[in-house]
Design a protein that fits this description.
The chain is α/β, with parallel strands linked by helices and 261 residues long. It has helices spanning 49-56, 74-79, 98-108, 113-126, 142-154, 172-189, 200-206, 240-260, and strands at residues 7-16, 23-33, 38-42, 64-69, 83-86, 160-164, 192-197, 209-213, 220-225. It has two domains: 7-82 and 161-260, 3-Layer(aba) Sandwich (Rossmann fold), CATH 3.40.50.300; 92-157, no CATH class. The chain is built from eight helices and nine strands. Strands 5-6-7-3-8-9 form a six-stranded mixed beta sheet, sandwiched between helices. It has a three-stranded antiparallel beta sheet with strand order 2-1-4, with helices on one face. Helix 6 (172-189) links the parallel strand 6 and strand 7. Helix 3 (98-108) crosses helix 4, helix 3 (98-108) runs parallel beside helix 5 (142-154) and helix 4 (113-126) packs across helix 5 (142-154). The longest helix is centred in the last third of the chain and has 21 residues, at 240-260. The radius of gyration is 18 Å and the shape is globular. The protein starts with 6 loop residues before the first strand and ends with a helix. 41% of the residues are buried.
């Protein structure tokens, strides 16, 4: 018996109505994501990667097809706090300490002060920010701020983590380190991760599957199963298997662009 997918889209369409003309953001997108998978979405700017992630999060409403999250509608899943969402920018409130920023969703959800503290301490430890709860965002580097943003998304222990280019604005050295830390975090928590990126090496390094999307209207042109082992040191990027997957992703992106031309 096949397990119920954590996220399942069938023939998903999304058209935005604008003053000039309709914008077809997604067309006929079908995808199932199982429990504990790490699935990356990659494609050119405007291909619908973030739009699809926002549909999963119940932040955009599809105009066709079906989409379920944990067996319920995305809106019901959002109200049930089924996922944590990490944006491109860390989005920390500068007047709140790191601990208070991480605790914000817990405050909104009515957790006791004691449980807030326990969860904040635990999630800050998970992202290697133990001891930084009393600092303010301006006292942390960009990479540390983004780790705090991940801690905030993990604080209420949702089983799905949605990440929209969380490391895109960081330099390559910091990005590499955070990629390693994210893989370690995923291995320890068993979360189901949906991850948007523009970076081919990042997508190949992190993912169990890579979803390649075409230019608007966003369609899935390839879904690539990773042959890489769960344990992935950074130098795996020099391996034959890694390079072969990266070439397939690049070919899929190129084919999608040519189709659109």
């Amino acid at each position: 018996m096949t397990a119920t997918p954590v996220i399942e889209a069938k023939n998903l369409d999304l058209t935005f109505q604008t003053a000039d003309a309709p914008v077809h953001a997604l067309r006929d997108v079908s995808l199932s994501i199982g429990k504990g998978e790490f699935v990356s979405f990659i494609g050119p700017s405007g291909c619908g990667k973030t739009t699809f992630l926002r549909c999963i999060a119940g932040l955009e409403e599809p105009t066709g097809g079906t989409l379920t999250v944990n067996g319920m509608s995305p809106d019901a899943a959002r109200r049930a706090r089924a996922y944590g969402y990490v944006f491109q920018a860390a989005g920390l409130y500068p007047w709140r300490t790191i601990g208070k920023n991480v605790a914000l969703p817990l405050e909104i959800m009515g957790y006791s002060k004691q449980e807030q503290k326990e969860r904040v301490d635990r999630t800050l430890d998970l992202v290697d920010l133990g001891g930084f709860a009393s600092k303010f965002p301006w006292q942390l580097s960009g990479g540390m701020q983004q780790r705090a943003s991940i801690a905030r998304a993990l604080a209420f222990d949702a089983n799905i983590l949605l990440m929209d280019e969380p490391f895109g604005a960081l330099d390559e050295i910091v990005r590499d380190r955070l990629n390693e830390e994210l893989l370690s975090l995923w291995a320890r928590t068993g979360k189901t991760v949906g991850f948007v990126t523009h970076s081919i090496p990042e997508a190949v390094y992190l993912s169990t599957r890579i979803v390649v999307m075409s230019p608007r209207p966003g369609r899935i042109t390839d879904v690539i199963e990773s042959p890489l082992p769960a344990e992935r040191p950074l130098d795996i990027r020099d391996s034959r298997e890694f390079i072969e997957v990266a070439h397939r992703v690049r070919d899929g992106l190129r084919a999608g662009m040519e189709e659109d031309a």
